[in-house]
Amino acid sequence: MNLLDYQARLNIKSKDGETYLFDPVRKKDIKLTPEELVRQLTILYLHHAKGYSLARFSVEKQIKLNDTIKRYDIVIYDKKGQPFILVECKRPEIKLDEAVCAQIARYNIVLQVPYLIITNGPDFFSFALDAGQQQFLRVDTIPDE
After folding, report:
1. What average pLDDT does range 71-77 have in this prediction?
2. What's the number of domains the chain is made of?
3. Where in the sequence is the domain holding 42, given as residue range(s)?
4. pLDDT at res. 2
5. Alpha helix locations (H) across 53-128?
């Protein structure tokens, strides 16, 4: 997964001295931050390279985990409308470590997806649920639509 291959597809604008990216899922301009750049490049990759319809994406939505409100980065729904892939995006300088894995695992308590992806742009890890063992295993590929 080379997210930089999708940089030319970004719709970047300047307004009032600030830089914005157009989010094709939320259909609005979002202020450019390092994490938002990773999020938008990931959306473009999953849409163009893996074939997921933008209509099946959900971006930065709240979920309730125990008594706290959390916000996930990206969820892709399957054709039956069930959460299928959960993506956690970090700024490029954030190391993808156990803390990031624990964060996405907590979100998945609520969402119950069979595929997890964590990325900071240059690095990514994907995991698939091994239903027999009821655990996630690291995989080298992300499923196509």
Report:
1. 97
2. 1
3. 3-139
4. 78
5. 98-111
In a domain, 117, yes or no: yes
Average pLDDT over every residue of 63-67 = 92
CA distance 10 to 22: 7
Torsion, Cα of 82, 118, 30, 59 (10° steps): 10
Range list of H helices, the chain: 34-48, 98-111
Q: Which two tokens stand for residue 47?
A: 């849409």
**Is pTM beyond 0.85 here?**
yes
Give the CATH number of the domain where residue 64 resides. Answer: 3.90.1570
On whether residue 112 sits in a domain, the answer given is yes
- β-strands 115-119, 83-89 pairing: parallel
Q: CA 1, 122, 97 angle in degrees (round to 5)?
A: 105
Asked if residues 25 and 60 have their Cβ atoms less than 8 Å apart, the reply is no
